Every structure is written in C-alpha cells, then in structure tokens.
Amino acid sequence: MAVTDAAIDKIKDMIVSGELAPGARLPKEADLAERLGLSRNSLREAVRALALINVLDVRQGDGTYVTSLEPRLLLDALSFVVDFHRDDTVLEFFQVRRILEPSATAMAAVNMGPDDIEDLRGILDALPDDPSVEQLVANDLEFHQRIAKGSGNTVLSSLIESLSGPTTRARIWRGLTQEGATVKTQEQHLAIYEAIASRQPDVARAWATVHVAGVEQWLRSAL
C-alpha cells in the first residue's frame, strides 16, 4: 500500500471511530504526523486527497476540519466521476434510475408534507402550455429531484441527483424525435403527482416505473 493511502486510511479510521467527529478540528500537523507515524509530506498528501472528496475542509490560517459528512457533500465526488460517462453507458444510468426512482417516489407518497406536495404541484403548473423541449426537460429534472428530496432519505436523494446529469441529453433527444413524448411526459408527471398527493405509495411506485422505463425502452430502440 502506498504511504499516502496508508495515511488516508489512518485519518479515515479516526473519523469512523468517532475520535474525529463532524466539524472537529484536526490536531496540528506535526502532532498528528508523529502520532500516526507518518511523515509530514505524507500527511499533507492525505489531507489534500480527503479535502478533494469533501471529507476534510482546509481553512487557510485556521486549520483543517472534518466536514459535516452529509451525503450530499460526500456524493459530490460521485457527480464528478459521473460527468465522465460515455454515450454508450447512458442506458445503464437509466437502468439505475429505474431501480432507485420508483422507491423514492413511493417513499415520497408517505413522507412528503402538505407544503411539499403543494410545491410539487407548483412545479407542474409552472410549465407553459406549449413548452419547448428544453423547458420540459428542465421541469422534468426539477420534478424528479423534488420527489427524491421528498423521500426523506438524503443518501437516496443525493444518488438520484448525481445520476440526473448523464440522462439529460437523452431526455432532450427523445423530446425532439419521439412523437407525443411531451404530452406523455406531462400525463405521467400528473399521474405520479396525484398518487403522491393521495398517499398511494404503490401507485406512485408503479407510475414512476412506467415513466422511467418508457424512456429507457425508447432509448434502447433509438440506439
């Protein structure tokens, strides 16, 4: 194992064990290096690597702190990796969406409060009567992200948000090339909303599955 990797593991162990809690300040560099049996250079490399994935926050002139370790923050690194997807893997992203989003939608039907449901309806109402493909896709992204957040599971919400980017271009492509795609999307969004608003998680799950699977099926044919 590389020296830097070992240093990363030792700092991670301190965090996982609770010795360094979220928001805690790391000991001074010289003290921590001696305690962990590391060179100061190795420790700096480890801190730099952990800062890149939002585990540590280096504050110039103040010190180094453990971040809040919230899933949204930690999964930013996943978003960075996902941005490097190739066009031939976009179908796999839809497959993952088909697994995750129906569950999130069912959870939202149970967990969303009245104000959250009203906000969800507001997203649908904000779409113009004759939207452009770009307006529809932007509305679609906002709608699904709001549902994911409404699931009450921050990890699930962050994962779904991270996976949205690679599917955006395919959604636009479908809107431009498939006849009736705009109307079908709006109808299915309304059905999902009504299932959530009426507290029917199984129905909400079913409509979300139909919605995502429909785009996936079209993409398979198009490819």
UniProtKB/TrEMBL annotation:
Keywords: DNA-binding, Transcription, Transcription regulation. It holds the Pfam family FCD. SMART domains: FCD (SM00895), HTH_GNTR (SM00345). Signal peptide: none annotated. PANTHER family: TRANSCRIPTIONAL REGULATOR, GNTR FAMILY, UXU OPERON TRANSCRIPTIONAL REGULATOR. It comes from Sphaerisporangium flaviroseum. InterPro entries: GntR_C, TF_FadR/GntR_C, Tscrpt_reg_HTH_GntR, WH-like_DNA-bd_sf, WH_DNA-bd_sf. PROSITE patterns: HTH_GNTR. This is FadR/GntR family transcriptional regulator. Residues 1-69 form the HTH gntR-type domain.
